[in-house]
Amino acid sequence: MSQRTIREVRAYTVRGKGADYHDQEGAHWIDDHIATPMAVYPEYRQSRRSFGLDVLGTLVVEVEADDGTVGFAVTTAGEIGAWIVEKHLARFLEGRAVTDLERIWDQMYRSTLFYGRRGVVLNVISGVDLALYDLLGRLRQEPVYALLGGPVRDELQFYATGARPDRAKELGFLGGKMPLHHAPGEGVEGFRKNLDALADMRGRVGEDFWLMLDCWMSLDVDYATRFVHAAAEHGLKWLEEALIPDDYWGYAQLKRQAPPGVLISTGEHEATRWGFRQLLETGVDIIQPDVNWCGGITELIKISALADAHGALVVPHGSSVYSYHFVVTRTNSPFAEFLMMHETAEEVVPMFSPLLLGEPVPVDGRLRVPETPGFGVELNPEVPRERPYTH
Ligand SMILES: C[C@H](O)[C@H](O)CC(=O)C(=O)O
Ligand SMILES: [Mg+2]
What we know:
CATH superfamily of the largest domain: Enolase-like C-terminal domain
Organism: Desertihabitans brevis
Shape: globular
Distance between the termini: 29 Å
Number of strands: 14
Bound molecules: ligand LR3VJJ5N, magnesium ion
Keywords: Lyase, Magnesium, Metal-binding
Family: Belongs to the mandelate racemase/muconate lactonizing enzyme family. GalD subfamily. Belongs to the mandelate racemase/muconate lactonizing enzyme family. RhamD subfamily.
Radius of gyration: 20 Å
Order of helices and strands: EEEHHHHEHEHEHEHEHEHEHEEEE
Protein name: L-rhamnonate dehydratase
InterPro entries: Enolase-like_C_sf, Enolase-like_N, Enolase_C-like, L-Rhamnon_dehydrat, Mandelate_racemase_C, Mandelate_racemase_N_dom, RHMD-like
């Protein structure tokens, strides 16, 4: 490949299912009375959409090289993200070499510090970074995992997240992670219901199947400590995202107080090497960066190395092909998450469906990452998209 430069960056928005996987219509397990930090307000307990979890929508970033080759990526950021790409970040890409990944990332991060650091700005930086990786892979005719040093194993093994770990077991997954339904505000009765749900599922899946619970930032240290001890009796493998992401001190306390044998995991709402440094210093066992949100592949490489030196596993949150190409290249990411986006979590459907074409899914809980150049997916031309801003 001769030295290619970036001709144009474009940002589009998509509504409905896609990279913003909470942007669902109708009944769906992912929005059925799941415990959240907003559950302190009873009126927001039944639905996460009721407090706006689906407000952002999907952002599509396209990066075009001077020979007309286009790389793209999708993330959660919608119209606000499109504005940031077009009005602010495009200047750091256009005219630069496609291989300038580090410099472009650094300029995007430093220039947005006054309003960024994490959250939607890091989602957007992730989207741009992933689009650049996709472009580089297409130009070199190589899958992204080859750009990252190559695979350390032949195929990925998955656990499934959804309402039906018993079904996940039938489908060949390693384990199943369920949402916790009741937050501390639902009192002793909620605590009992949470434990009963775990005990009931343990009865359905038998002793050896991994069972995990995702608390989606809803607990406090006292509740989480009492719960993790009670859940250990039912063979809980890990307790996920028990506390709000800013409570690093709470995570340290929870890790100290948790029973040996139950892992403490978190990090899907954390970003950058500095955020994860703080998290790793709490002693948590597994970090779960979302490559669509934590800063993209350029940042995940650093986060992962830091985790390895701390003896923590990196099991990225969701993010489909964007995490598969990374996980397959790292020994400290021994398995991957598959987020079941089927309405009742009974069938395997592509996570970002219908937005991407060629999005691979696990079969019998396993997947050989395709060798197709870039991330190996295309945008579905039948999904309507808009370009709300230009520059
Ligand atoms: C299941 C959780 O509530 C969430 O929406 C997805 C998630 O946190 C995960 O896959 O992990
Ligand atoms: Mg989670």
